[in-house]
Amino acid sequence: MLTGTAHLFIPGPTNVPADVQRAMIVPMQDHRAPEFGALLQPVLAGLKPVFGTREAQIALLPGSGTAAWEAAITNTLNAGDKVLMARHGQFSALWADMAQAMGLQVEIIDVAWGAPCPVREVERRLGADRHGEIRAVFVTHNETATGVTSDVGAVRHALDACFHDALLFVDGVSSIGSIPFEMDQWGVDMAVAGSQKGLMCPAGLGILAASPRALAAMENSHMPRSFLNLRAMLAAHEGGSFCFTPPAQLLHGLRAALTRLHSEGLENVFARHHRLAEGVRAGVAALGLSTVAEHRIFASDTVTAIRTPHGIDAREVISIARTRYNTHFGGGLGPLAGKAFRIGHLGDLNEGMCLTALGIAELSLKAAGAPVTLGAGITAAQHIFAGEAQAPALSIAAE
Amino acid sequence: MLTGTAHLFIPGPTNVPADVQRAMIVPMQDHRAPEFGALLQPVLAGLKPVFGTREAQIALLPGSGTAAWEAAITNTLNAGDKVLMARHGQFSALWADMAQAMGLQVEIIDVAWGAPCPVREVERRLGADRHGEIRAVFVTHNETATGVTSDVGAVRHALDACFHDALLFVDGVSSIGSIPFEMDQWGVDMAVAGSQKGLMCPAGLGILAASPRALAAMENSHMPRSFLNLRAMLAAHEGGSFCFTPPAQLLHGLRAALTRLHSEGLENVFARHHRLAEGVRAGVAALGLSTVAEHRIFASDTVTAIRTPHGIDAREVISIARTRYNTHFGGGLGPLAGKAFRIGHLGDLNEGMCLTALGIAELSLKAAGAPVTLGAGITAAQHIFAGEAQAPALSIAAE
Amino acid sequence: MLTGTAHLFIPGPTNVPADVQRAMIVPMQDHRAPEFGALLQPVLAGLKPVFGTREAQIALLPGSGTAAWEAAITNTLNAGDKVLMARHGQFSALWADMAQAMGLQVEIIDVAWGAPCPVREVERRLGADRHGEIRAVFVTHNETATGVTSDVGAVRHALDACFHDALLFVDGVSSIGSIPFEMDQWGVDMAVAGSQKGLMCPAGLGILAASPRALAAMENSHMPRSFLNLRAMLAAHEGGSFCFTPPAQLLHGLRAALTRLHSEGLENVFARHHRLAEGVRAGVAALGLSTVAEHRIFASDTVTAIRTPHGIDAREVISIARTRYNTHFGGGLGPLAGKAFRIGHLGDLNEGMCLTALGIAELSLKAAGAPVTLGAGITAAQHIFAGEAQAPALSIAAE
Amino acid sequence: MLTGTAHLFIPGPTNVPADVQRAMIVPMQDHRAPEFGALLQPVLAGLKPVFGTREAQIALLPGSGTAAWEAAITNTLNAGDKVLMARHGQFSALWADMAQAMGLQVEIIDVAWGAPCPVREVERRLGADRHGEIRAVFVTHNETATGVTSDVGAVRHALDACFHDALLFVDGVSSIGSIPFEMDQWGVDMAVAGSQKGLMCPAGLGILAASPRALAAMENSHMPRSFLNLRAMLAAHEGGSFCFTPPAQLLHGLRAALTRLHSEGLENVFARHHRLAEGVRAGVAALGLSTVAEHRIFASDTVTAIRTPHGIDAREVISIARTRYNTHFGGGLGPLAGKAFRIGHLGDLNEGMCLTALGIAELSLKAAGAPVTLGAGITAAQHIFAGEAQAPALSIAAE
C-alpha cells in the first residue's frame, strides 16, 4: 500500500493548493441568480493580467483546453482556410490534427521534437505567401511533450516583418500563469489556456482570450458551432452567466487560485518557476542525462523532458517511481514513449518538492539500471537553490 | 446576511449528497496511470442500468449535457440531414437551434409549452416521409422548462408502426437517474444526460449513450468534430482513459453517486421521485395554482413549473424566496419568464425538503401579493407523504 | 436508505455552515510556529463580544463544555467549599453531580423540570447565609433538557441585594452565541460555552471566560488540576499558543463562525433566534401540545422541549422521524425520557428549516398515534414568519 | 508568499492522509442516535491491535494525550501515592509535573536528556521498595523531545524480577501506531496515545487503554474526577456513546486512519517507520551532526532530534526552513531550545518526504552558517532507501 503524500510531477493537472481545494467545496448554487455574476466577474478580471492583456475578452469554456483550441478555430476561420504551424511535439501534432479534422488546410513545418517553433522558416513561409492565403499562424508556446518554449514575440516580429495580417493563435495551456505571456504586446489574437496547469485547479475549463482582431474575424466565420459558440459565451459572460450550466466549483477554485497568483505577484511567480526549473535542469545535467529540449536557451520553465540512457526504458523508471515511491512522472509521448520521462515543475511548487522529484528520479533510474550517481542531481539543485551556482550547461541531445 | 441551509430547488444542479461531495475532495492524479482505469470502468458500468441499457456504449464528455447533445449530432449525422422534433419548451427549442446551427434541416412540430411531444403528429410526419428523408427523431424526454415528461416508448412505437428507420435521439438530461429510462427497450439510439441532475454531481460532464445502430451510423458521418469526437473518446474509454485531461474529481463524485443510486435501488429511486412529486403537485393544487404542464398525466416527476396568478410576477416570488428565505426556485424561461417559477424535485431529496419548498413558496407568493392560504399546500403534501391521500387532480392551465 | 439532507434538530451539535465546514479543511500545522498566534488571537478577540465582556479573559479548553464546567470549579474553589445552585433539568443536575464529585458541598434547590432558576429562593438562601459560606452560585442559563432560560441578571441582583460576594458561575453552553449574554453587565465570574451550539462548529472545545474576580480567586484555589489548569492555559494563550497540542482545525472553524456571527450582527443573530423560536412555539401550540417549559415567559429561544400526548412514547416519534424522514430530534432526558422530544433551533438556521422541523414532527407524531392535525403547526409558524401573527399563548404543562 | 506543499516534519500533529481528511468532512450527527455506536465500535476494535492488546479496554477522551495522562492517574491512584519515573526529556518532565500537581509523591530518576529510561536503576529502586510503597511506574516509551525510545518490556522484567506489583503506566503518544507496542505482552496497565501522531488524525482525542489490573485499581481510587471519569466513559462506550458531546468528526477520521493502518499491515507500518528513520539517521550522520539520542540503539523510529553545531542556533535553522522553504521542523524543547531541532518521521510518510526533510535541513543549516556539505545527508538516505547501505554508526553526543 502506498503511503505518504502522492508526489505529483506530471505537467498537469498540477497540485491544487489547500486553499484552492477548500474553495471548491461549495454547495451547489443557482447559476442564473444575480449572485453568480459576482463570482464570475473577478475571475475574468483576474485572468487578464495573467494573459498579459487589457484588450482581449476572455471566455471560460467548460470542457478542457482542447475545447478552447477548437473554439479558437471554429469561431474565427472557415473550412478550407489555410493555417501555418510547426509540428515539434505531441501537442502541436494534435492541434494540427484538429485543424485538419475541422476542415482547415494546414501547412505544417515539421522540425525535430526538441526544437522550438522555427521562426525563420515561419517568416520565410509568410514572406512566400504572396496572396495572403495564410489566415492564421498557430504557435505552441510551450510544447508540454518536449519541454520546449517557443518565442511567440519573435513570431509576431516575423508577421510584422512580412506585413502579413494572419491571425496569431497561441496554445498557452502549459505556459500561461507560469511563465511570462504578453498577449497584447505580442499581438496574439487567440490565446488558449486550461484550468489545470499554472492555474492550479482541476481540469474542466478551457480558457480562451480573444483579441479585438479575433473578435472582428468572428463576423466572417461560418463554421458550424454551438456548444463552443464563442460569441454566445462572451455575451453570457457579459451578463454574468454562461450559455449552459457551468462547473461552478471550478470558478470558486479559479478565483482562489487567481488570488494566490496575484498575492504572490506574477513577476515572483515567473521568477520562482525559473528558479525551480533551473534547479531541476542542473540536477538533470549533473546526472549526465540529456533533455529532449535541444538547447537550454529554449528549455521550458514548466516541464523538463529527460531522455533515459540507452537501453533504459523510461516506462520502467516511471513505473518504479509510481509503485515504490508514490511519485508520478509524466511519460514520453508519441515517439518519445519509453525514451523519455517528464518532470512537471509548474503551478504550486517549491524547492522541497523539486528535491523530492530529483531524488526519486535518481532512485528510480538507478533501480531501472541506469548508471546514475545517487545524490548527484539533487545536490546540484541544492546549489542552485542556495544561490551558489548558476545552472550548468546542458548536454544537447542529438535527435 | 443569509443564514442556515441554502435551500436549492432549481432543477439542476441539484443538491450534492455529503458523501458525493466528500468523494470529490481528492488530490490531483495522473490520468494516464494504470490506476485511472480502475476509477473510470465502474463509472461506465454503473451508468448502464441507469440508462436502461446493456447494449449501448457510454462516453463521458467533459463540458456539459449541451456538449453531449452536440456530440450526438456531429458523430452520427451529416450536414443537410433532416431531423424531426417537437418544440414545446426552452430546452427542446435550444436543441432545435443547435441542430440548425450544425447544419441540419430541422422539421419542427411546434406545440404549446406545457404539452408533451405530440406522438400522433410525429407518427403522421414519419408516415408521410415516403423517401425516408428523416434521419433522426429528437425527443426531449423531460422538458425542464415546463415540467413535462414525454412518452419515449410511444415514439418508438410510432417509428415501428411506420417501419421508419430514423435514429431516435433522446435528451434525458433532467430525467435519467430520476425516472425510468429504458434505452434498450425503447430503442433509443442516442441518449444524453449530464452529471448535475439525477446523478447528483456538480456540472461538468455530459454523458452520451450510443446504441449499436448509432455506432454504425458513425461510419457514415463526416461532420467536422474533434473535441467531441465520439469514436476517439469511446476508444480511449476502452483503454481506461480520456482523449484529453478529464475532470477526474467528477469521476470520483459520479462513482459515489452511482453507489448511492444502486444502494437505494433504481426502483426505489424512481418511486421516491414519484412520491415526492405527487406531494409537490398536491400542494400546488391545494394552493389553487396551475402548473405549466397541461395535464397531470404527463407532469414531470423531477420538476414542477407553476404559473403565478394573474398580476403576480414570478420573478418577484423568486426574488423574495432568495433574499428573505435563502431558498432558490427556478425561473420561468423564455415566454414563461415572469409567469412561472419552477420547483426542482430531483436528485438527493426527501419529504422534509419538499415541505420547505412548498412552505417557502407559500410565504413568497403571499408576500408578492398572491391570494394563497398559508399552509394549504404544505398540508396537502403532508397528507400525500403520510399515505393518506392520493394526489388530487390539478387544474389544467389553458395556454 | 435515507436520502436528501439529514435534517438535524438536536440542540447541539448544530448544523455547521458550509463556510465554517470549509474553513476546517486544513493541512496540519505547527502549533508552536509564530503564525499560530495569528490564528488564535482573532478567535479570542471575536469571542469577547459574544460573551458580552470586555473584562474577562477567555480560555479555549480542548475537550468539551464539560471540561470548561470542571475548569471553572477546580481553578477557583477548594474542596469543601459550599456552592448554591438550582436543579431543574438534566444539565443542571449533571453540573451538581460534578461539583459533588469534585468535593464541593452543593446546596441544591430542587424545582420542577420546566421551571427556571428560582431567583427568589436563591435570594432567600443567600440572605440566610450569614457567614458567607456560599462561595459560588451556579446558574444554568439555558437548560437544554427542558428548554428553559433563566434570568442571570436577576441572580446578580439577588447577590447584590444580599451584599453577598459569592462568585457567579453560569453555564451558557446552549445560550451563548444565540441569545443575549451580558457577562460584564450581569457580573458573571465564570461563563462556560462550547464550540458546538451557537458557535456552529463541531464539538471539541470548551470555552471559559473568567472575570477579574474569578482570576483573583484562582490565587487561593488549590484543587488538583493539570490538564485543566486555567492559569497555564491563559498564559499560553497570551503567547499565542496552548499548553498542549490543540485541535487547530476547530480554531479555523471558530474563526469562520465568529466572522459569520459578527457579519450578521449579534443583535440580528439574537432577533433571528427569537423569531424562529416564536415560530416553533406557535406551531407547538397550534398542535395542542404543551412544552416542558412551564411558561412562555421563560421558554428558550434555542431549544423547545415538547411533551407528547398521554400514551404516545416520544421515543417512537423520534424514531419515526429518524428512520422515515431522515430528521433528528432530541430525546427527552432523565425523567423526560419517552415523555418529551426536543427541537433544537439554534445556530445556523432559517425559516425553511423550522418549517421542516414542524412538518416532520407533525408527520411523526401522527404516525405514532398522536391526534394532531397535519399542517396546523407549520401554518401557525408561517404566520409568525410572515409577520402576521404574534406567538399565541402556550398551554402551561402541569408537571 | 509561501508556495507549494507545506512540508510538515514536526513530531505531531502529523500529515493527515487525503482519505482521512476526506472522512472527517461530515455533517453533524446525533451522538445519541443508535447509528453512533456503529461508528464508535469499529474504532475501539481497530485500536486494540495497535495497542497490542486483547485484554484492555479503550477509552477515547476528548481533549488530548495530556487528558489521557491525567485520566490514567486520577482514575487509579490516590493522593499521596508514590510513583516512580525517569525524567529524561520534556514530556517525561511534564508528566512528572502533572503527577505532582495531582498530589502524587513522585520519585524521579533524573538521567541525561538523550538517555532512555534507566531500567537497571528502576529495578534497583523497585528492589529497594521493601514496603511496596511504589504504586506505579511511569515510562515514557518514546521521548518526543529527545528522540529516544525506552524499553518497556525491560521495565516489565524489572518489575517481575523484584516481584513488585506496581502498576505500569506508559506514555505511548508518539510511539503507538508507529512502532511496536505490546501492551499485553509487556504487562502495561495504562497506555496513553493521542489522535495526532501515528494515528494520523488532527489533535483532539486522548486515547487510554486500561488493563484488567488497572480497571481493578479503579475500585480503590478516590481522586476527584468528573470530566475524565474513566469508568463513566467506558460504560458509555459500552453502550456506543460518550458521556458528553464528542468530536464525532475525529471518530470518522480515526476509523479511516485505522483502516489505512490495518490495510498496510502493522508489521509493514513498523518496518516502514524503521526504514525511513534509518534513512534520516544515515543522513544526519553523513552531515557530521550528532543526535540528541545518545546511542543509535535507542534512537527513535518516529522522531530524530539533531544537535546543531557549536555556534549555530537551531531556532535560526528552523526559521529559515519555515520562511524560505515552507518546511516545518520541531524545535528544541526546554534545555535543548536553540541547541537542537527535530525531524518528525512518523505517520503518513514516504521516502520522498524524507528526502525533502533532509534536503531542506541541509539548505537551512548551511544558510544558518553550519559547515554542512549540501547533498551529503540526502545521498546517504538514498543509499538506505535503495537498500544499498546499512545505516552507519552515529556519533554519540556527549551531553
TrEMBL record, chains A, B, C, D:
Listed GO biological process terms: glycine biosynthetic process, by transamination of glyoxylate
UniProt similarity note: Belongs to the class-V pyridoxal-phosphate-dependent aminotransferase family.
Positions that bind substrate: 342
Residue ranges occupied by any Aminotransferase class V domain in the UniProt entry: 32-316
A UniProt-annotated Pfam family: Aminotran_5
Protein name in the entry: Alanine-glyoxylate transaminase/serine-glyoxylate transaminase/serine-pyruvate transaminase
Modified residues (N6-(pyridoxal phosphate)lysine): 197
Protein keywords: Aminotransferase, Pyridoxal phosphate, Pyruvate, Transferase
InterPro entries assigned: Aminotrans_V_dom, Aminotrans_V_PyrdxlP_BS, PyrdxlP-dep_Trfase, PyrdxlP-dep_Trfase_major, PyrdxlP-dep_Trfase_small, SP_NH2Trfase/AEP_transaminase
CC cofactor: pyridoxal 5'-phosphate
Superkingdom per UniProt: Bacteria
GO molecular function, one term: L-serine-pyruvate transaminase activity
